[in-house]
Write a structure and sequence with these properties.
Layout: E1 2-4, E2 10-13, H1 16-36, E3 42-46, H2 60-63, H3 68-90, E4 94-98, H4 121-140, E5 148-150, E6 157-161, E7 164-168, H5 176-187, E8 193-196, E9 203-209, E10 214-219, H6 228-232, E11 240-247, E12 250-258
Parallel strand pairs: 3-4, 4-5, 7-8, 8-10
Antiparallel strand pairs: 1-2, 6-7, 9-10, 11-12
Helix pairs in contact: 1-3, 3-4
Length: 260
């Protein structure tokens, strides 16, 4: 991605190399905050769209600098290293969750995403799971325990954190209030906070009272930042990552790490 504005000024640039730079920057910034506000466990929720524009008709595939499978492998390899390095630095249990986005869906014969289950994120998830397991077994041979867990692949993430029910999904719908009510009815659960991405911008809204604190819907920012899609829906925001600390008091502290 290379978006130019007036007088040739760069609005945003994005590539695999820039992604990696941003992730290392994120780790460094997060590490500084971790020592100020330590936690007992880190949950990393990856909300999809790991790679761009899969197997659509037309010439979109030809515009990709790196092929689909090479992109998936590069992403999986990097995230495997990144997760292990995060654990090595902070030495607290890490849980990694990955769900698919709409850009990751394989669309072989038509533009419309008719088969949501056919998602390249499944392959990325399988690679990361295997890489982490090999790392754990290798370290176990020298008596070192690596406390990293990769949860099974799914299209949603559901966590009970200190009695608060947190539900995450990619978020490719406009009305998150309708979504939270649908998911509660569909899964037969209570949701205190619904978290989604997709729109390349951050926002939040209180929609009631939760078991602790407010009942909320939260849009998290994108590591990509503004791109052609976000321009068409008139969403302009910096690249970023949302971090929330939960304690026995509920949602205790939050921050957005801006990455560009």
């Amino acid at each position: 991605i290379l978006l130019k504005g007036l007088n040739g000024k760069t609005i945003n640039e994005y590539s695999p190399e820039i992604y990696k730079q941003r992730m290392w920057q994120l780790m460094s910034d997060f590490e500084n905050d971790f020592y100020k506000n330590p936690v007992d466990k880190i949950v990393v929720d990856d909300l999809g769209d790991c790679i761009e524009g899969i197997l659509r008709l037309g010439d979109s595939i030809q515009k990709l600098r790196t092929g689909v499978m090479d992109s998936a492998l590069e992403y999986a390899q990097f995230m495997s290293v990144w997760i292990c390095e995060l654990y090595n630095r902070l030495q607290v249990p890490i849980e990694y969750n990955l769900i698919g986005g709409n850009h990751d869906i394989i669309r072989i014969l038509q533009q419309k995403a008719s088969f949501d289950g056919e998602n390249v994120c499944k392959t990325i998830h399988a690679y990361i799971s295997q890489a982490i397991e090999i790392n754990k077994l290798t370290n176990a041979q020298v008596g070192k325990v690596i406390d990293i867990s990769i949860t099974p692949y799914s299209d949603i993430i559901y966590n009970d954190l200190f009695g608060m029910n947190i539900f995450c999904y990619h978020g490719e719908t406009k009305n998150m209030v309708e979504d939270i009510n649908f998911f509660e009815n569909y899964y037969g659960i209570n949701i205190d906070i619904l978290i989604g991405g997709h729109l390349h911008s951050e926002s939040g809204k209180t929609i009631g009272v939760a078991s602790m604190g407010d009942r909320e819907i939260i849009r998290v920012p994108s590591i990509v930042g503004v791109d052609n899609f976000s321009k068409t829906i008139r969403k302009n925001a910096r690249a970023g990552v949302k971090y929330i600390i939960f304690t026995e008091n509920g949602k205790d502290w939050e921050k957005v790490y801006y990455l560009n």
